[in-house]
Amino acid sequence: MEILTENSKETKKAGLTLAKKIKQTIAEKALVIALEGELGAGKTTFLQGFSQGLGIREKVLSPTFVVFRKYALSSPWQAFYHFDCYRIQEAKELLTLGWEEIIANPKNIVAVEWAERVSQVLPEETITLKFTFINETTRKIEAF
Ligand code: ADP
Ligand code: MG
Question: Residue 139 CA: which ligand is closest?
C-alpha cells in the first residue's frame, strides 16, 4: 500500500484510520508498528492521528529525550508505547528498557520512530511504514 498526503491533517487522518482498523485485531503478541523516514517526514504527525484513533486524548509529542512514553488504553488493550529511537546507538539498548516484555504482551500497541535503527530487535510480524518527504507539503507513506 502506498499513499500521498498533501498536508499534516491528511497524514493524521491516515494514522487515525490505521488505529481504528488495528484496534479490532487480536494477536498473540503486542502489535508493533515501525515508522521509518527522515526528520520531518511525518512520523510523529501520523502518530498523533493514530493515538487519537486509539482513544488517547493527550497530544502525542516526540519522546526525543526519553526514548519512550507510555499511554493507557481502554480494554481489551492496556497500553500504547511510543518509542523514538533517534538517539539510540545500538538496537540492544532497547533490551535494557524492558523491550522484550513490552512486545510479548498482546495487550500492548507499540509504535517505533526511527525503527531502521533497531531493526534487529523488531518482531517478524511488525507492520512497517516508510515515510518520504516529497516536497514542503507532500509526503509518501508506504506500508510493508
Ligand atoms: P518526524 O516525526 O518524521 O520527524 P514530524 O511529524 O515531527 O516528522 O514533522 C513533520 C513536519 O512536516 C511537521 O512540521 C508538519 O506540519 C509538516 N508537514 C507538512 N506537510 C506534511 C504532510 N503531508 N504530512 C505530515 N507532516 C507534514
Ligand atoms: Mg518524530
Answer: 1
Instruction: Extract the C-alpha cell encoding 51.
Output: 493515538
**Interstrand relation of 68-72 and 31-36 (parallel, antiparallel or unpaired):** unpaired
Atom number, ligand 1, closest to the C-alpha of residue 131: 3
Residue 104 grid coordinates: 510479548
Output the pTM of the full model: 0.97
Residue with cell 499511554: 71
Distances (CA, A) of 129 to 35, 66, 82, 107: 5, 22, 15, 21
Residue 132 C-alpha to ligand 2 middle, in angstroms?
13
pLDDT in tens, 85-128: 999 999 999 999 999 999 999 999 999 999 999 999 999 999 99
The rounded distance, in Å, linking the Cα atoms of 42 and 77 is: 26
Q: With CA atoms as reference, report the closest residue to 31 among 84, 118, 109.
A: 109
Question: Are the beta carbons of 86 and 116 closer than 8 angstroms?
Answer: no
CA distance 35 to 132: 11
Tell the residue nearest (CA) to atom 16 of ligand 1.
Answer: 8
Ligand 2 centroid, distance to 67 Cα (angstroms): 11
